Structures are given as structure tokens and as C-alpha cells.
């Protein structure tokens, strides 16, 4: 009886300690615009960051824009809103640069802009990246989100499907290593209906061929479209194998990997994921993956609280902030 009471009191004490934690965040994955290249604006983003306890944020545009086709009676509001295609849109990088540079210097330093406005299957894409580095010297701190395998988005986008190991990406990975720029890559581990790691070899080849390039795997290879159709029983095993083999691999834990993988239906953290993060405490980071609308930022990041509270405090703070900042080029 006394022993049982002691266990209960200890559990209550641990729970009380965990719930009292507060975290400072560095958002590792955020888009300034949506799929129509529209945004609430940089001032709205700064306000949302202040309310959410986000001290700094990665910020990129979106490399594609949804076409409003003449055959569609209503303007789409999302890339899956109708059957019209998407096309590549390089101006998105200039929009990000203009927005950040409109802020006072102290606020500008809170942002870590990534170049994204290129077609990852175009051998000329490297020219756009070099042009952005030349036009905005010392400004860019990463590359991405690079769209390669991306289920419905890939199917709706004009042209050749992207691959993490596409020839056009080789020059980009090499340039990233030269400038010490991390590369955020969206590379689904499989398609929406194949219960096997269909595309994993493409991503793994990129890791193997470019060991000096810091590659961040967006959503750990998952996506919302995959989650709606299947759960991937091989995900954790493959992720653990890749982390053990490739020290240049980092993992973005933004929304689509949170459920049903990291948290169960009751919101409890998976012991397997807790062990993975504790085994590689410097390789994971959190991102909101918001697209142009920033009001949900606080609520989005707070969804990760059960995971953070279940980790040792030092590991939790690395996950929430420090790991992403450590990847950025040293200035």
C-alpha cells in the first residue's frame, strides 16, 4: 500500500514538473506564402511568433503556384481544390526576401530564409540558386523545401516527377555543401497506396552521394495524403537504419509525422519514437509547416508538447530549438 502510494505520488510529481515546462522554439519549417503565393504578411508572422514563443524561424516560399484554369468556375484555395495543374514559380524567393528586408534589422535576424523557387528536375535550377545568392549576398541560410516525391502535388504539377537523386539535384547538393547550406527535401518514402518503401532508395542514394551536404528529411518521409490512405509499419525501422548510417541526415518532425506515428489516438508519445530521439538527440527538429497563414502557429507547436514533456529537458530543448539553429551556416 505504502509502495503503491509512493509510486502514485512520484507519478504526480513527474506530471506536474512536465506540465510546468515552457519551451523556446525555432520553427524549422515554415512557408511565407500559400499555393496561390498569397500571405497574411510578415507583420502577422512576427506577431504569431511572439505569441507562440518562437524566437526564430526558417522561412521559404513555395516553389509552385496553383493555376486558376478557365474551365474551373471558382478560384481554388488549395492545390487539391480542383483538377487544375500547378507550375513552377521562381518569384516566390524574391517575395520572401522583400518581406524579411522590410523589417527592422533586429526582427530580420529572427528569420532564416531558404531558397525554394526552382524546378528540381531542371538542370538549369542551379543557375537560379546562384542568382539568388548573388542578388542577396549573405542573406540565404538554406535551400528548400525542395519538392521531389510528393503524392498528389507531384501528380498535379506540370512536367517530370521529381526525385531526391535526380541529376539536377546533384549540383544543388554540391553547392549547398560549398556554402554550408542545409537542404530541406520533401521525399515521400512511398506512394499513397504501396505498403513498402517504394521511393526510399532515391533518397538514400542522395544521402550516400553527398556526405558533406546536410539534408533535412521533411516530415520523415510521410505526408498527409499517405496518412489518409495507409499507415507505414516500416517507417521507424528505416528511419533508425538511415540515422545510423548517414551522419548528414536530419529529420523534420512537422505535422504529418506527428500522428499517427509519434502520438497515438490518446495523444501519448510512442516509446519507439522517444527512444529514437534520445538515441540521436541532435538530429531531429520541429516545424509548423504553415503556408501563408500564421494564426495557428501557437496551437500547431503546442501539439508537440506531449512529446517534449516526455523527453529529458535538455533533449526536448534541442528538439524544439537548438538542433535547427546548429545546422545553419556560421556567419
> What is the element string, with H for helices and E for strands?
HEHEEEHHEHEHHEHEHHEHHEHHH
Total helices: the number is: 15
Largest sheet entry:
8 strands, parallel
Going across the major beta sheet, what is the strand order?
1-2-5-6-7-8-9-10
Number of strands: 10
Instruction: Report the C-alpha radius of gyration, rounded.
Output: 20 Å
Strand residue content: 5-15%
Please report the distance between the alpha carbons of the first and last residues.
60 Å
Q: Segments where pLDDT lies below 50 for 5+ residues?
A: 1-18
The average pLDDT is 93
Structural class: alpha/beta
Fraction of helical residues: 40-55%
Shape: globular
What would you say this structure looks like, in words?
- The chain is α/β, with parallel strands linked by helices.
- It is 43% helix and 12% strand.
- It has helices at residues 2-19, 42-52, 91-101, 105-108, 125-135, 151-156, 167-179, 200-209, 224-229, 235-245, 258-262, 271-279, 297-302, 305-310, 313-327; strands at residues 25-27, 54-59, 64-66, 86-88, 111-115, 142-147, 183-186, 215-217, 249-252, 284-285.
- Strands 1-2-5-6-7-8-9-10 form an eight-stranded parallel beta sheet.
- Helix 2 (42-52) links the parallel strand 1 (25-27) and strand 2.
- The longest helix has 18 residues, at 2-19.
- The model is unreliable at 1-18 (pLDDT under 50).
Question: How would you summarize the topology of this molecule?
Answer:
Elements: H1 2-19, E1 25-27, H2 42-52, E2 54-59, E3 64-66, E4 86-88, H3 91-101, H4 105-108, E5 111-115, H5 125-135, E6 142-147, H6 151-156, H7 167-179, E7 183-186, H8 200-209, E8 215-217, H9 224-229, H10 235-245, E9 249-252, H11 258-262, H12 271-279, E10 284-285, H13 297-302, H14 305-310, H15 313-327
Protein name: Amidohydrolase family protein
Signal peptide: 1-20
Keywords: Lyase, Signal
Amino acid at each position: 500500500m505504502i509502495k503503491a502510494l509512493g509510486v502514485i505520488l512520484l507519478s504526480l510529481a513527474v506530471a506536474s514538473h512536465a506540465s510546468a515546462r515552457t519551451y523556446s522554439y525555432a520553427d524549422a519549417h515554415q512557408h511565407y506564402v500559400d499555393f496561390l503565393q498569397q500571405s497574411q504578411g510578415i507583420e502577422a508572422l512576427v506577431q504569431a511568433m511572439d505569441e507562440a514563443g518562437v524566437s526564430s524561424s526558417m522561412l521559404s516560399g513555395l516553389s509552385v503556384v496553383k493555376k486558376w484554369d478557365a474551365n474551373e468556375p471558382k478560384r481554388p484555395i488549395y492545390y487539391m481544390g480542383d483538377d487544375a495543374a500547378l507550375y513552377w514559380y521562381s518569384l516566390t524567393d524574391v517575395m520572401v526576401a522583400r518581406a524579411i528586408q522590410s523589417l527592422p534589422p533586429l526582427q530580420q535576424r529572427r528569420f532564416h530564409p531558404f531558397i525554394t523557387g526552382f524546378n528540381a528536375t531542371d538542370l538549369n535550377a542551379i543557375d537560379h540558386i546562384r542568382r539568388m545568392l548573388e542578388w542577396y549576398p549573405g542573406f540565404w541560410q538554406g535551400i528548400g523545401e525542395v519538392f521531389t516525391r510528393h503524392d498528389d502535388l507531384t501528380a498535379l504539377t506540370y512536367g517530370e516527377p521529381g526525385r531526391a537523386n535526380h541529376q539536377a539535384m546533384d549540383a544543388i547538393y554540391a553547392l549547398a555543401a560549398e556554402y554550408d547550406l542545409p537542404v530541406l527535401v520533401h521525399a515521400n518514402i512511398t506512394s499513397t497506396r504501396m505498403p513498402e518503401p517504394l521511393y526510399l532508395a532515391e533518397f538514400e542514394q542522395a544521402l550516400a552521394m553527398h556526405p558533406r551536404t546536410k539534408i533535412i528529411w521533411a516530415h520523415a518521409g510521410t505526408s498527409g495524403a499517405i496518412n489518409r490512405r495507409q499507415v507505414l509499419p516500416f517507417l521507424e525501422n528505416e528511419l533508425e537504419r538511415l540515422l545510423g548510417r548517414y551522419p548528414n541526415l536530419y529529420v523534420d518532425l512537422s505535422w504529418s509525422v506527428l500522428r499517427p506515428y509519434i502520438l497515438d489516438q490518446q495523444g501519448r508519445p510512442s516509446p519507439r519514437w522517444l527512444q529514437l530521439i534520445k538515441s540521436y538527440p541532435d538530429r531531429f527538429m520541429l516545424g509548423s509547416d504553415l503556408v501563408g497563414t500564421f494564426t495557428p502557429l501557437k496551437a500547431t507547436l503546442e501539439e508537440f508538447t506531449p512529446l517534449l514533456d516526455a523527453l529529458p529537458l535538455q533533449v526536448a530543448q534541442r528538439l524544439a530549438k537548438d538542433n535547427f539553429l546548429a545546422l545553419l551556416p556560421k556567419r
